[in-house]
Every structure is written in C-alpha cells, then in structure tokens.
Amino acid sequence: MKTTTAQNILLILLAFLGLGALGGGLTFILSPDGTLMGMPVSDQSPFRSFLVPGIILFVVLGMVPVGLVFALLKKPTFDGAELLNFYPDMHWSWTYSLYVAFALISWIQVQMVIIQAVHWLHTFYMFYAVAILFVALLPAVRNLYQRKSATDAV
Questions:
Q1: pLDDT of 11-37, one tens digit each?
Q2: Per-residue DSSP letters for the chain?
C-alpha cells in the first residue's frame, strides 16, 4: 500500500509519541522512586511511587500508538477494537489515533493538576496532541481509512 505525505506525518507523530512513552514508562517501572528520571514523587500525588503512572504511560501512550502505526498501515480487522469504534464508517485504527490524542491531553492535564504547575513540556505535548488530531482529521487521511460500504464494517 502506498502512503501519502499526510499519512506519513500521522505515522511519525504516533511513532515518536509511542517510543518516547515506552522509554519514559519503562524508566518509571524500573525505578518507581523516580531516581532514574531525577524526579521525586510529589507530595500532592495520589501515588506513592511512579509504578502505576509508569505502567499507564507505557501501555496507553506507548504500546497503543506503536501498535497503531502498524494497524494504520495494514488495516487489520479486530473485533475487540470495533466495540469502541465510535466512527463505524472509519477503520478502527483511525478512530483510535483520535483516542490517543485525547488520552495525551488527559495525561498532561492530570499531570498539571497533580503538580499544580505548567512546564514547557506540558505545552509542547498539548500542541503535539492537537497536531495528531489535526493530521488525522485531514481529508487526505480520512479518505484512506473511510470504509467504502457497510460490508467493510465489522
């Protein structure tokens, strides 16, 4: 399958997010006290260590986006993913790329609330999530994942 420039940008955005989150999540899993990242656990945090946030980061913002890169390229059928596909006229992988962007926005928002501050990286990742949404919603990208007929839907 030939890819378009807009699709390649979406794939790169998801891959960069996923690989970074895999690294960050794994670091927190291996060092739940935050020493590997040089980040102490905040007194305002509902977590006593970074283990649970590390697992969430690793899975939701790491494994899922990396998996989506392959799913967006191959368009596999996956009945489990179709259960949460709110856009039945679109392939589930496209819909989940939107979900990842909203998960990133939520992740950053929760971080800012917990630490009661805004770091420049929060702003960067908020704009990053908007970029994922913007590119995924481009007509050139939507057309690649739109189902042609009702028989294409699972």
A1: 999 999 999 999 999 999 999 998 998
A2: -PPPHHHHHHHHHHHHHHHHHHHHHHHHHH-TTSTTTT-PPPTT-S-SSSHHHHHHHHIIIIIHHHHHHHHHHH----HHHHTT-S-TTB-HHHHHHHHHHHHHHHHHHHHHHHHTS--HHHHHHHHHHHHHHHHHTSHHHHHHHB-SSGGG--
